[in-house]
Amino acid sequence: MHALVYTQPNEVRLQDRPYPEMAEGEVIIKIEAAGICGSDMHAYHGHDPRRNPGLVLGHEFAGVVVESRDGSIAVGDRVSGNPSTTCGVCDNCAQGRSNLCSNRTMVGMTRPGAFAEYMSIPAASLIKLPGDIASDMAALTEPAATALHAINLSQRALHRPLQEGRVLILGGGAIGMLAALLLRHYGVNRLAVVELNPKRAQSIRNHVGCDVLDTTREELGESSFDLVLDCVGAAATRKAAFVAVKPGGAIMHIGLQDWASEIDMRKLTLGEITLMGAFIYTLADMRATVNLLRQGVFGDLAWVEKRSLGDGPAAFSDLHHGRTAAAKVLLKPD
Questions:
Q1: Sign of CA dihedral 2, 28, 281, 308
Q2: What's the pLDDT tens digit per position in 249-281?
Q3: Which CATH architecture has domain 2-140+301-332?
Q4: CB 3.0–4.6 Å: which of 62, 114, 223, 309 could bond 58 by disulfide?
């Protein structure tokens, strides 16, 4: 079968790979669409020691089951799912926080991922898709669930309803775009997104209809936002989040571009600012996200670009060089 393989930093190649093996309790999926995530780009740049050359990347997917060794999922079922395989028995799994499983593994990291014609995965990680949702839309379930999970956690830290405050999103990639669309659905009218790529910035204006800021040319208002979502996770965006957040406000950290940096602990303490992290989602988040996608909450998806799997090397290169306006690029096997 054809698969897109990470071969060395700044290079992915289309290669022939063996048809996947399937253990008990697993299924094999014929991939119909798979999204390029920021973490895939992080690996592409050689910045993720957990993803090594020779790996098939990709963990945002939708497809149809062609083989099954599990009674809960049948051949012909259309599915998306959680790329993380969880143990189900650790303390976090027992508490319903499977996203924090102590023993998780992941497709596209510890086992071959979704940038291929076929992929194996444990059936317990899957959700069945309703018949009226297209695979291209369903492939957005994973990143959209990340945005949903982060926003739901953020609301717990705010002293007033989310709709009453000013919200800032740092980064207009897929998570930032999906978060912005979801916040609009929740009734947030005072919303701004920081995005430095002019093509993406215009796409956000067109599809979200909120303020878009370029911090290389304009400054953020100091202490002016009730909630800041850092969807980049770089040292510069962490610093910007602390500048922008109001005393008593909250910062939600989602992106993982840089692994460490200093933060303004003095403002955090004197301003009683809540600093939170959000890591992926649960299956419950994913099921809720499928319903939101079906309702059209994330728009008509005209902001998504679709390419063939064979065009994957060019897609990665275009994302690397900022040559596309798309916040999300989907790869589709020929």
A1: positive
A2: 999 999 988 878 888 999 999 999 999 999 999
A3: Alpha-Beta Complex (3.90)
A4: 114
